[in-house]
Specification:
The chain is α+β, with helices and mostly antiparallel strands. It folds into 3 domains: 51 residues, Uridine Diphospho-n-acetylenolpyruvylglucosamine Reductase, domain 2 (2-Layer Sandwich); 116 residues, 2-Layer Sandwich (Uridine Diphospho-n-acetylenolpyruvylglucosamine Reductase, domain 3), CATH 3.30.465; 107 residues, CO dehydrogenase flavoprotein, C-terminal domain (Enolase-like, domain 1, 2-Layer Sandwich), CATH 3.30.390. Helices cover 32% and strands 25% of the residues. It has a 5-stranded antiparallel sheet with strand order 4-5-10-6-7. A hairpin with a 2-residue loop joins strand 8 and strand 9. Helix 9 packs antiparallel against helix 10. It is globular, with a radius of gyration of 19 Å. It binds flavin-adenine dinucleotide. Flavin-adenine dinucleotide (FAD) binds next to strand 2, helix 2, helix 6, helix 7 and strand 10.
């Protein structure tokens, strides 16, 4: 049932410090609103647990893309348009630029934020596979503390994350080490635009003298959360690409991915299709190496 908007309040504190103070004073009372592209759908369908929005959309402190010698740091408030328009992200993190550019519509991309995509914690969201493949870290901030954790430890289950109710996602940090890596991303949906993925896969690998010496694979819609495919990675690391053993390696990698995937049947697809297509995407990446 639609929510009655007169029952909701929206506050836009002037500073990040004030937002954090309000979250600390009343943990669980407020819902942080960034671009609102997800929350407005939830409002429309009466799915919101709290009746108080705290807007962070206007906070310049959260909207940045910075580079250090070793990292690229993206503020949680950076929009998809900021990300796909960033020269450094397009050059060094093309999987992230690509996933930002196929998220929703241009209107969505102008408002929707990377932080909102992560914190909404949908297993089908577009940017998490790239962030998992790039081994991102996330910085969580509260009135009392700031902590950094690997993004692969952030999602705990369906719509469950490691973030406390008094915390905000502040920064997503990515290492600048992928110039020599082969990179792959593909989203399979009903259409080329405005589609939530049935399955998506992002992967990077460093191949030297024919051997895989570094590999990471992230997937959407293959589990109850964005999935880092560590079983497939374990099978592949150190292995030779091409040659006599290639067919057996592809078979083993496909089986490992199928073994760790736990997708569901839903209105967009079936678990069986998702596993088959996820394995096809992994195979396509391996053959491209
Ligand atoms: C028509 C339409 C099409 C869409 N298509 C796609 C698509 O193709 N792919 C896709 O992945 N998504 C899609 N979405 C979903 C949505 O646009 C994205 O998930 C978007 O990234 C949400 O970002 P936002 O800033 O609007 O988040 P909001 O709606 O403001 O917030 C989403 C959630 O994140 C929390 N949150 C936001 N920022 C923070 C923060 N810094 N710290 C802590 N919590 C925070 C909010 O409290 C809320 O729970 C679509 C949505 C619509 C309406």
């Amino acid at each position: 049932m639609r929510s009655d908007v007169t029952q909701f309040e929206l506050t836009a504190p002037a500073t990040l410090t004030e937002v954090l103070r309000r979250l600390a004073d009343n943990p669980g009372r407020h819902t942080v609103l960034a671009g609102g592209t997800e929350l407005m759908v939830a409002l429309n369908t009466g799915r919101l647990a709290t009746h108080s929005f705290l807007s962070i959309q206007h906070l310049r402190e959260l909207r940045f893309i910075r580079e250090t010698p070793d990292t690229i740091q993206i503020g949680a408030g950076a929009t998809f348009t900021d990300i796909r328009g960033s020269k450094i992200i397009c050059a060094e993190l093309p999987l992230l630029a690509q996933s930002a550019s196929w998220t929703g519509s241009v209107a969505n991309q102008n408002r929707g934020t990377l932080g909102g995509n992560i914190c909404n914690a949908s297993p089908a969201a577009d940017t998490p596979p790239a962030l998992l493949a790039y081994d991102a870290n996330v910085t969580l901030i509260s009135a009392a503390s700031m902590r950094e954790l690997p993004y692969r430890d952030f999602h705990l289950g369906y719509k469950r994350t490691a973030m406390r109710s008094d915390e905000l996602l502040h920064t997503i940090t990515l290492p600048r080490i992928y110039a020599g890596h082969r990179q792959y991303i593909r989203k399979v949906g009903t259409r080329n635009a405005q589609a939530i993925s049935k399955v998506a896969l992002a992967a990077i690998a460093l191949v030297e003298a024919g051997r895989i010496i570094d590999i990471r694979v992230g997937a959407a819609s293959l589990a109850d959360r964005p999935l880092r495919c560590t079983a497939a990675e374990t099978v592949l690391i150190g292995q030779t690409i091409g040659g006599e053993g290639m067919e057996a390696l592809v078979r083993k990698a496909r089986a490992a991915l199928a073994g760790e995937a736990e997708p569901i049947d839903d209105i967009r697809s079936t678990a069986k299709y998702r596993i088959a297509v996820g394995a096809n995407l992994l195979e396509e990446f391996l053959r491209s190496l």
